[in-house]
Each structure stands twice: as C-alpha cells, then as structure tokens.
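Lecture notes, continued. The same structure-token format from the folding unit now serves as the input rather than the output. Read the line below as a description of shape only.
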C-alpha cells in the first residue's frame, strides 16, 4: 500500500519550538523535546531548556529518557494486546475473568471485557487507590474485580487506570512471563533501545519528576505514578520510561498500514465511545470525530499524536510535573497547537 505523506512545514515546526521555548523560559517546565516526523523519513527534533536543575546545564535531546506515565497504555499494554489478538490468544469480547483465573465468577468486575477496558467503558472503580489494599493477601486482580462497579460496562466513557492494570496482569499470565519482559521484547523488535520499565539509574540523561517529601531527592528514574510504584514500577497503565527518538520510531511503525501494529492501529482508530463533542475513544486512543488524528497523553507531560491519512506524527516529552504536581493546564495550549498542526 502506498502511503501519501504530508511533510511538516518549517513554519509549523517553528511555532512548536517557540511555544516550547516560552514554557521553559517561564519556568513552567525545566525543558522538553518534540519530535515531528512523517512515516519512513527522519524526524525533526526540537529541544528546549535543561533536563532539570540537578542535572546541571545538560540539555534534553532525542535520547533523554522521560517518565512516559499513561503513554504506557499505548506503548506497552495496547500494543501487546494487539499482538495477542493477532495470535488469537484474546478477543475483545473476552471477559477479564477468563484471562485471570484468580477472579471469582461472582466478582462484579469479572465480566468486564477486554474491549471495555481498552475503550474506558468498563464501569470499574475510577479511583486507582491500590494503597487501600495494603495488608490484604488476595491477588490484586481479585481485589480490583471484587469492588462494586460504578457504571454499566459498555456504556459511558470514564478514564480508568484499573482496567489497564488488569489487562497488564492478564497479558503476563497469558504468556507466563512478566509484563516487563513481554514489553522489552516488543520494543527490541521495533528498535526502541531507550524504552524500558523502571527503575533506571540516576543520570543526567534521565529527567527527574517530583519531590515527594521536603528535603528528599526528587523521583529520578523511579515511576511517578503511585499505583505503579506500589506494583514495583511495572504496571499496565504506567511505569514506562522512553525517549522522543523511540516514540518517533514507534509512531513510524504504527503508520505502516501493512504492518501488524499499523493494522491494529487502523482497527483501533474507530471511535467506540463518546468523550465529548468532537472526540471519541477508540481502543485506548483518543480519536477525533473526523478521523484525522489519534492521540494519547501522559500525566507527567508527555503526548503522542498520529495522523494516519497524512503519515504525520508528533511526540512530546517533558517533565512538566517537576515544578507543579499537576501541570496539565500549562501544557494545554502546546497540546492544542500540536493537535492543530498535525492535521493542518
């Protein structure tokens, strides 16, 4: 299949660079990296600021490793689920209890399906709060699925981490191998050499995030997400560290419609649940109603955008939580600009 690409125009890249520079100059983020690219071509990287004050004057670049936060959902769990579906190991209609034998038949969440998890329509408890299970001896999947549902599965959209935690557990059990091993094999095959579950060694090439306690070192190579931290840094919803260069590599493979991942992306791109006017949820990805773009964000300040019709992608890596626990509002304009420019 011939892919028609629309290269990024210099003025578009300049606008993104200018906005990232404004954020770093204002102290909103220590620094960041943007990768703008089209399928089967070398990306353009735009960097600004520093990795973090404790890393001296080290500037971020394509190989700086950032906590990807919820990009884990697409870079790891969604991609592995696509492989398992292609191998006929799972179906979207499979109830999660069929993949996790420790879940009792009468558990309220046991009947939630793989498809409902991927579309965030599971009706599972929306608060992740794995800390509430401290001291409990039951398997985590049993604890999660035994909670009362807060919605009817398959109906309303509500972003829920617990579903992706369950799917990560299910994938590991299905293959009889740890999730981090499955993911590492996937990334190695794709050429994503800088992507891994943490913890990572503290170096100037790894971007720190938050300071949990006054006077204590910042999280630096250890996961920002509390629930993933309780699981040892490896979970289906968060825990992966990666680079702008690797996200560009991943995006390039996703935009190959003839490849396995590209086929899975095409299948996942149909909106299956309404988020808000103009936006729907496909399988894991947010999808614009016109079908021109798919994207996903990470809480720490990361994003990945795809425009299959034009072969464009954009990856954003920042440690935006460095100065503020929740910096999503400060990134909103840059993210809106990214979405606008990738389809323009």
């Amino acid at each position: 299949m011939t892919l028609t690409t629309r290269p990024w125009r210099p003025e578009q890249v300049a606008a993104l660079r200018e906005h990232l520079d404004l954020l770093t100059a204002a102290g909103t983020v220590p620094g960041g990296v943007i990768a703008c690219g089209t399928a089967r071509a070398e990306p353009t990287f735009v960097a600004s600021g520093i990795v973090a004050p404790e890393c001296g004057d080290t500037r971020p670049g394509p190989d700086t490793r950032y906590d990807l936060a919820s990009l884990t959902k697409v870079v790891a769990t969604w991609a592995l689920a696509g492989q398992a579906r292609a191998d006929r190991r799972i179906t979207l209609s499979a109830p999660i209890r069929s993949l996790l034998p420790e879940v009792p038949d009468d558990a309220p969440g046991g009947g939630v399906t793989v498809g409902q998890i991927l579309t965030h329509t599971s009706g599972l408890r929306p608060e992740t709060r794995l800390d509430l299970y401290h001291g409990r001896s039951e398997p985590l999947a049993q604890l999660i699925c035994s909670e009362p549902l807060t919605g009817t599965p398959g109906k309303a959209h509500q972003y829920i981490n617990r579903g992706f935690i369950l799917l990560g557990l299910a994938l590991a059990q299905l293959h009889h191998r740890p999730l981090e091993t499955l993911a590492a094999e996937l990334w190695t095959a794709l050429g994503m050499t800088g992507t891994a579950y943490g913890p990572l060694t503290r170096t100037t090439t790894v971007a720190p995030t938050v300071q949990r306690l006054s006077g204590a070192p910042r999280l630096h190579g250890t996961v920002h997400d509390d629930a993933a931290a309780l699981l040892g840094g490896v979970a289906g919803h968060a825990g992966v560290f990666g680079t702008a260069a690797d996200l560009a590599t991943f995006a390039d493979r996703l935009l190959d419609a003839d490849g396995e991942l590209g086929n899975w992306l095409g299948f996942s791109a149909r909106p299956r649940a309404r988020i808000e006017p103009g936006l729907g949820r496909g399988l894991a990805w947010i999808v614009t109603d016109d079908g021109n773009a798919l994207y996903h964000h990470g809480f720490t300040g990361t994003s990945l955008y795809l425009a299959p019709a034009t072969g464009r992608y954009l990856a954003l890596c920042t440690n935006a939580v460095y100065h503020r626990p929740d910096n999503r509002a400060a990134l909103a304009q840059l993210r809106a600009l990214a979405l606008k420019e990738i389809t323009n």
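Point for the exam: The chain has two domains: 10-73+180-342, 77-177.
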